[in-house]
Structure formats: C-alpha cells, structure tokens
Amino acid sequence: MESTWSLQQTVPAEAPRIRRITMADAVDALRLGWRDFQANPTQLIFLAILYPVIGLVAARAMAGGAVLPLVWPLASGFALVGPFAALGIYELSRRRERNLPVSWHHAADVRHNPALGAILLIGVMLLAIFAAWLLVAGLIYSTTLGATAYMPANLAELVEAVFTTPEGWRLLLLGNGAGFLFAVLVLSLTVVSFPLLLDRGAEGRPVDAGTALRTSLRAVLSNPGPMALWGLLVAGLLALGSVPLFVGLAVVLPVLGHATWHLYRKVVVR
User: What does the pLDDT average to over 222-251?
Assistant: First the structure.
C-alpha cells in the first residue's frame, strides 16, 4: 500500500488518473467484451490471419529440425504480441461506445490515429520482448533436454521426451517459469497503454509512449488483485482457445481485445 501511495504521489498532475477497481470489474469487462464481439463478430478476420501462421509453424514442427523445440514458445508467444494485434478491436469498441458506425473495415482506422507513432513504438518493444522470449526459451531447451544425446525427430517424440525424462520436467519447470515472468511484464506494460494511446489520439489529446507505459504500470500497481485475476482469465482463455489446433483463438482473441478496452475504461478516469 505504501509503495502504491508513493507512486501515485510522484505522478504529474496532467497524467491520466487511475481508478481502483474490484475483481467483479475485471469479470464484467470480459462480459462486455463478449457483448461487443456478438454485436460485431470478427472471427473470420482472425481465422484468415491465424491459419497461415499456424499452418507454417505446424508444417515446420512436423518436419522436425531446429524449429521443433520452439514450437511451444512460438505458440505461446501469441500472448506477448496479442495487445498490439488487437489494436483494430479496440477501435471497434471505441466506435461502438460513441454510437459511431461499426464494421470490420473500421478496424483499419487505427492507421489514421495521431498516436500511431507511439503505438508503433510500443509495438516494436513487444516484438523485442517476443524475440527475447524465444532466445530464453532456446537457452532453456539447450541446457535441459537439448543437452542430452537424445534428439527428438518430430513433435510426438518431443512431447514424449518432455513428459517422461528428468530433463523434460526441468524444461517444463524453467520454461513455464520464464514464460510467466514475460507474461507479467507484457501485462503490466500494455494492459491499458494501447487503448489509452488510441483513445486520447482519437480525441485530439495524444499522450506519448512513455506516459502510456507508466499509466499501465500504475494501473497494475494500484489494482494488484483485479489485474492478477485479469491475467489468469487471459491465460485461461488463451489456453482454452488453443485446443484443438488453435481454432478457438479466432474467437478468444477478439473477445479479449474488446474486453481490454472495457477494462481500460474502468481503470483510467476520463
């Protein structure tokens, strides 16, 4: 509590103000996100984007080779770049909130937002974090399962080795631990930063990337419980959407995008 208070005291007067929310608010944001998705379904767009990527990764995985150990890190990386990929979804929720015409092609209106430069800057930052995650995942594999003489030839053999060998269990423990830290970092930096940039830019009051990132961090520090619940909801839905064959992500990703907009509305004072 004391650290949160100190952080709030050092915030400039013109910085976006943060509201305290409850666990129920986090759940309600998800409900509102589902409502927006029902009003403007966009699953076909996400299927068109997801399937070529998933097909390429799956084909490489089945063929074996150097990319095989990175199949799971690549798949789980959706959570790290998802906030940037959902920009168009935030725009749809913003327009619906203001009773403006809403259609799937309005998602591309983000390119006209005055805050586009700051949005792209944070997007590049997320890509760098994603690259760092792949590097860390590769290092963990090379020091655990990759250090053994046995080299899986395909995905089935890799899964068997992970769950039936001591090195595989160490890989699971270290990999999931590192993935959790990366996910917390991205959640803290982006839970409200992208919607804030988009919203203030559309209103003609753009903020810079640094302000957006600091506001997101303050939102998490001021609401640790609800934000932890939000992170669990996101992780659970992404896992659910990944089975089978990531098809469910075509619904999960846009719903989470809409819900993130409503969470932003609950946390950041207008």
Answer: 88
CB neighbourhood size of 57 (10 A): 16
Sign of CA dihedral 152, 157, 161, 162: positive
Determine contact, residues 102/95, Cβ cutoff 8 Å: yes
Name the residue ranges covered by the structural domains of the chain.
34-267
Q: What is the pLDDT of residues 109-120, one digit of tens each?
A: 889 999 999 999
Task: Look at residues 89, 94, 103 and name the one whose alpha carbon lies nearest to residue 200.
Answer: 94
Average pLDDT over residues 204-217: 95
- The sign one gets for the Cα dihedral 89, 91, 97, 100 is negative
User: Treating both helix axes as pointing N-terminal to C-terminal, what angle do 193-202 and 166-190 enclose, rounded to 10 degrees?
Assistant: 30
| % of the chain beyond a pLDDT of 90 | 54
Res 44: pLDDT: 61
**pLDDT at position 5, please?**
40
Bridge partners (DSSP) listed for residue 268: 18
The 3-state DSSP class for residue 208 equals coil
